[in-house]
From TrEMBL:
Compositional bias (Basic and acidic residues): 31-49
InterPro entries attached to this UniProt entry: BCAA_transport (IPR051010), Leu-bd (IPR028081), Peripla_BP_I (IPR028082), TPR-like_helical_dom_sf (IPR011990), TPR_rpt (IPR019734)
Superkingdom as given in the UniProt entry: Bacteria
TPR repeat placement: 95-128
Pfam family, one: Peripla_BP_6
Domain Leucine-binding protein: 295-470, 586-697
Record key words, sorted: Signal, TPR repeat
Protein name: ABC transporter substrate-binding protein
Amino acid sequence: MHPAMEVLSASRRALVVALALLLTACPKAPSRTDGRDTPDGEPAGRPRVEVKQDATANAALAQARAEAQAQPDKKKAAESYLAVRKAYPTTTAGQDALYNAGVLFFEAKDYANARKTFNELIFENPLYDQAEDAKHKLALSAMEVGAYRDAYQTLTSLAERAEGEKKEQLLREAARAAEGAGLYSQALITAVKEAGEARTPEDQASAVTKVEKLVEGRADFIDIARTQEGLSSSNPAWPVLQFKLARIYYHLRDWTRLEETLQRFLREAPNSNFAPQARELLARATRRVEVRPRTVAVLLPMTGRYQPIGEAVLRGVKLALQGSDIELVVKDTQGDVNKTGQAMEQLAFDDGAIAALGPLLVDDTKRAALLAEELQVPLLTLSRQEGITDIGPYVFRNMLTNSAQARAIADYAMNVKGLKKFAVLYPNIPYGVELANEFWDEVVARGGAVRGAEAYTHDQTTFTSEAKRLVGRYYLEDRGDWAEAVRDVQGEKITDAYRRRKAMEKARSGVEPIVDFEGLFIPDDWRRVSLVTPALAVEDIVTNACDPRDLERIRKTTGKKDLKTVTLFGTNQWSSPKGRSGLPELLERGGKFVTCSVYVDGFFVDSQRPATQKFVKSYREAYREGGRDPGLLEAIGYDSARMVRQVLDKQRPNSRAAMREAMAGLKDFDGATGRTSFNDKREADKQLFLLSVDSKGIKEINVDDKAAVRGSGS
């Protein structure tokens, strides 16, 4: 078969399929019996009215024609014809008058009346000798009033029977109608057909431009793939569709189909305007598996509002790679999700990085993790985002998480201290709510109980009400001992208002606190904690249980021999800078009310662990001019980079898949933040730092590994 005939045949078949689908989706309205409109251009096959010649009607038509020619207003001229139509409806003159009126309405751009008039004519006599022209004008009028589907049906029907330039014109108009109706599949089929049948370079270019417009954000992937299937590469629209398919496969990460599509494109259309882009895309796809085994990337916010935390991590990373031949590629995410995505693609396709560290921020991490999985690049993220490694096997995490902190505190409180009953006092913000829930779940899972929970606003500065609620002193009307005290006061029959009020206040202060919990978890920062703890003391919640002298003073003051003490527990937000006295500001502000408390952190600069001491010493030497000690971010950056360095130096992986396997098998890495292993969810599992507060400062609690005080994201 001749190539041109092959294209024509394929296009015809596609058009028929499109029409069938359209007609199935949009069934025609039933024919009317009142001589009114039917679906445009689709009347029954025989006249509804038997027309006849009539001399009087012919004379009236001639008179109307003369009046119309003399009338400059085409709408008024049309009325002359409609008068003949009304007087002689069943005559040939009446139908000619109806046609002429429709033409005048069309030329006057009164498309609503033109559509109504032509519809009436074709309904009555689809075999009228000017029916084709009437249908064409009817379709164009339908488009002008927004009835695109009706216009599309009529125009495609006319195009099937037309030839030459008329056919090309009808196809162009049908494509416009389909696009207006949102029938992008049909519009694409028609535009491709038009391109294949165009006679001049100008018409061909116009049709190809339509195809380009349709494939960019209008026709969907299925429409494009179906239209391209079986299309000859000799069709001028073929390169447009083929290259668009390639770009779709690229975004879908369907590398096999991408390479096949691009290779065929370059074979069939090497001189296309898209050829340079196709070659670059093919080269880029090929580069995805080309790895530089000693190149590692790090994604951090090095500019913008989050620059300080990015710089902190980078200091740790650079310290870890000192003396190594590993090439570090720093990608500035600027705290922007889109830039993070671009950076991930660059490090995979252009830099050939075998692995990547970062990012830090939640949204950045989600984007990076998704791309890491798509591109199969091992990513060791430093985000706190829970569940981030669930995205896929190429995503790892090394960072202190909320769940890890809650688990470590619960383990210590219950397995080491032997406590079973707890209360929670937390800020009503996502951080506080999440940690409160995590801790509660951990306590219950270990057989303990949470006896009370109170929330407060994030900017609150007084906590009297919350403390009273914790010990049952807020809603006194629910307590029997209070009711008894009130009856006693009333029984005294005190008449003086002042004395009666004083008696009630004494009775109120005499109501004993119900301290039915042994530990109180406060997941907030050290500033708020230093305000909360004095309010607890006012309600007789004794928190400095480790100070014998103070306990003895409280016994003498209260006359109570058996004191119920409560241990306060916190998170790494309790870590504070040193104040003027050299003590942590938590202790300076909270005083004796925070002593004996225990909190958890992912790093402790004064730890006696050898690996931590080694890191702190190296950091102080390397960044002596900065004059600042390292914190969690620096330590996490350092450990993460050292993990990658250890894998690269010892196992020498030469592919990203091999790097992923090696990272997944990392066990007992002795780092600044603890001895670390990746669990089966690729979360860093390590013994966290448990820290106690006493009058002299913060001290690390040495816990035997058997106590299972560990943290991970699982």
